[in-house]
Amino acid sequence: MSGALAALEAELTGCRRCPRLVAWREQVAVEKRAAFRDETYWGRPVPSFGDPDARVLIVGLAPAAHGANRTGRMFTGDRSGDFLFAALHRAGYANQALSRHRDDGLELRDCFITAAVRCAPPQNKPLPTERDNCAHWLAAELPLLEHARVILCLGAFGWEAALRALPLFGATPPRPRPRFAHGAEHAAERVTLIGCFHPSQQNTFTGRLTPAMLDAVLDRARELSTQ
Known about the structure:
Layout: H1 3-12, H2 19-31, E1 49-50, E2 56-60, H3 68-71, H4 79-90, E3 111-115, H5 128-141, E4 150-154, H6 155-165, E5 185-187, E6 192-196, H7 201-204, H8 211-225
Parallel strand pairs: 2-3, 2-4, 4-6
Antiparallel strand pairs: 1-3, 5-6
Helix pairs in contact: 4-8
């Protein structure tokens, strides 16, 4: 990781801007889930993860209360992450298919994972003020990812966060704003946005998002990132 990204991560993990999120993430870290009662929860803002020279950037919603809020690494330790990292492994972006804890040896190649909100929100629903507070971190991070060419947006929340961040890539915000859909694309001056249903259990257990659908989106991301 570059020195600038490491410094940003150190600053991020001490953030306490949103009182509701701070209270919730710390409450969860103390009360815990029974299956993880012997573990020490991270309980802080979760930093981004991956290859700083990546051409593909994945933007999620926020850490899961007993997933990344427990493990301290994006999408690590929950079913959404299991689904996502298995697909990244099939596509050659990850060196292994499972993500259990932040020191399990998982590495990403040409892929970087971040989120619109960095603290676990109650019911996975950040407030607009919390979303806006957290936009600062994405705004500071994106200019440091100099090789990013594709932003894969997980869900409508990630899509909107990426649209708001386009000026950081020298792009004019589109009017009218393109609507989120699985497989939707928006080409800007330097990057292309691709929409993808979020790999939440609500989507993967119902078949709204299948492994084949996620594989196809990742294939498209690679195609666009290498043009």
